[in-house]
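Running co-folding for fe (ii) ion.
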Amino acid sequence: MMQQPLGYSIQATATFNELDRRVLRIFADVQAWRGWIHINQPEVRPDRIIAAIREVFRSVAMYQSFTTEAGFHMIGRLPKGEVRLIQQLCGHKAEEAEHGLWAVEDYLKLGGDEGNLKLPPTPATFAVAAVWWRMAEVEDSFGYLGAEYLFEQLTMLVTQALLPILQRHGLSHDGLRFAVEHATEDAKHAVFIKHLILDTVTRYPASANSMLRCFDYFHAVYPLPVWDEAFQRATGGDHVHA
Ligand SMILES: [Fe+2]
């Protein structure tokens, strides 16, 4: 029996718990995915792990500036009296803004080809940007919190599960900064978003459905469509989209 946090409605707690359950199901899907199984094999070559992570960074670089800009747009559509919420979300999004640059840096440090960064986005990364912009333009702006929870909580779970794999192979590459820092940074961000979800649903009961809906919209294109494309490139399938 989950404890009811003080000051939040029963509906808000139920909404957060449902979002959290959905993230855990998606994390289980990630662990059952061929890319995760590959890098989690004890006998995998360390350069295969590096190649997979490098290609995920390239994918991040392909969508991150667009999801950030769409996020700011969505935050900008919140009710204008929500000054504190807008301030908090803008502060958080500003911290995230440079992550696309980190992904580019790490992609290059891990041996990525600079020329690839000038290529058009892949179908899955294009779809991520498209979903975020569509949500930003037409969805209830409170839905932002549901989609953002998928980003933060899943990144935290995946990067924390990745650390022992990196340690097992003695991988402490300078180009793994994005992955390693997100294990702690997104733990804090996920808790921050959790409290905003609880507070917002308590005050705006109708926002619960918007959050669940935006979570699902984003999940339709993320993470596995994006990561599987990256894995395909890492394992030599780049001719599919080059
Ligand atoms: Fe974050």
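Result summary
The domain at 45-236 is CATH 1.20.910.10 (Heme Oxygenase; Chain A).
Residues 96, 152, 185-186, 189 surround fe (ii) ion (CB under 6 Å).
Job closed.
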